[in-house]
């Protein structure tokens, strides 16, 4: 079960889980490998380099049942992002694919070598982590708040073009030291062991699918899932052939780096668990063609970092609407209205009888309403003689309601302190007066106005459609943009000094 609530302008997602009976570890997987303090493997988390879903706090409700409070990601999942581009048959901008590649590659490097994002410090010894469910619906997007923005910048919001990519759901994760006999079936349900290639293959699958959102499903394809055969059924070498004239083609570097996740005949033999027969007659599993973790850390990650850095701060300067042309925030799901839990105790309930409460209402109605009370019995006399007689007795005795209720309850035995409470039968006159009040409320209610509320951002119109074509083209081999250096806006935050990250060298095979 999942619920959403708000605390100090931050949305949290409460997830209730149950530890399997066959699980022999003290903590469930999502708590055992998490950002929580005291976890067996504590995932790194920093506001500037968010890569893993923040687990703020948790509690054990009962033996084997846990409540975990994760920070909510407002941009949805990569699966939802991909599907929204696919609905419009629009290509995902290349800068975003490089951004996802960088974040996932940093996560893979941490899983295998213990190097936290933003550092190169590998830990020895290190117990390798296997996510085992690295699917598009377990990678989230989060757009940081813009509380300091008083107006729309000329180039647009960089946060809308380069949001946080957050890896979630470690519910099927494992460590290299774990006993394979205790592992639950994961994304590859017929495997009972954790392997390095699983997370790497799924990372490549996500990146290749993001390059195919502009390719329609063939008419003769009866697969109920539009992405059931993808990305294997479409070679990376052909993705640019499906683009329209106004679209910006993907760069040769991106295509070449993602071709490393393909295997021979993958367009016809799309099962990664399948096999290939080499010319020498040797049977080779398809997953043997996947790159290893060293390639991800030494080749893919440095290249992705360089590309994202060049897109963030183009050497030619910022053209007007630069970030707006790279904006992907139009894919954000509808905003959630959080539930706020009030920790103060509610005031004690009013257990007064219905007669006493209705009597108080009658006294506060005023002279005009008392005349209506006097006219009600006369209408009852004309419509129903029995009701009329009861109303006359009410006027004479003054407490006819109590007597009539006593008569109705005469057959009911006196209740003891242990017997259930029996509510008295409602009085028809009181109910008529209450309905009359509801009818008149439409004319008595105060004036009102509708106010749009947002959290931590100025009241700006939400972006609901993609930017106009064309998007900024891929960078040239020299790292500069295709556009002219003229008519560009310099970056006020740029510095002439290069950081250690900027001077990072890439492999000669993939170097720009």
- What is the radius of gyration? 33 Å
Sheet with the most strands, sense and barrel status: 4 strands, antiparallel
Strand order of the largest sheet: 1-2-6-5
Strand and helix order: EEHEEEEHHEEHEEHHEEHHHHHHH
Structural category is alpha+beta
Helical percentage: 25-40%
How far is the first residue's CA from the last residue's CA? Answer: 47 Å
Mean pLDDT: 75
> Which descriptor suits the 3D outline?
globular
CATH superfamily of the domain at 74-331: Transferase(Phosphotransferase) domain 1
Q: How many helices does DSSP assign?
A: 13
The CATH architecture of the domain at 74-331 would be: Orthogonal Bundle
Oligomeric state of the chains in view? single chain
The CATH topology of the domain at 74-331, please? Answer: Transferase(Phosphotransferase), domain 1
Low-confidence stretches: 5-9, 339-343, 350-410, 454-460, 481-512
Q: Could you give the count of β-strands?
A: 12
Strand content: 5-15%
- Broad CATH class of the domain at 74-331: Mainly Alpha
Characterization of the model:
The chain has 512 residues and is of the alpha+beta class. It has a domain at 74-331: Transferase(Phosphotransferase) domain 1 (Transferase(Phosphotransferase), domain 1). It is 29% helix and 10% strand. The protein has helices spanning 29-32, 78-88, 94-113, 158-161, 196-210, 252-258, 293-312, 322-325, 354-363, 367-383, 385-397, 400-408, 428-444; strands at 2-7, 10-18, 33-34, 41-42, 55-62, 65-71, 129-130, 139-142, 164-167, 174-175, 275-277, 283-285. The strands form 5 sheets. The protein has a 4-stranded antiparallel beta sheet with strand order 1-2-6-5, with no helix packed on it. Strands 3-4 form a two-stranded parallel ribbon. Strands 7-10 form a two-stranded antiparallel ribbon. A hairpin with a 2-residue loop joins strand 1 (2-7) and strand 2. Helix 3 (94-113) packs antiparallel against helix 5, helix 3 runs antiparallel to helix 7 and helix 10 packs across helix 11 (385-397). Residues 5-9, 339-343, 350-410, 454-460 and 481-512 have low confidence and may be disordered.
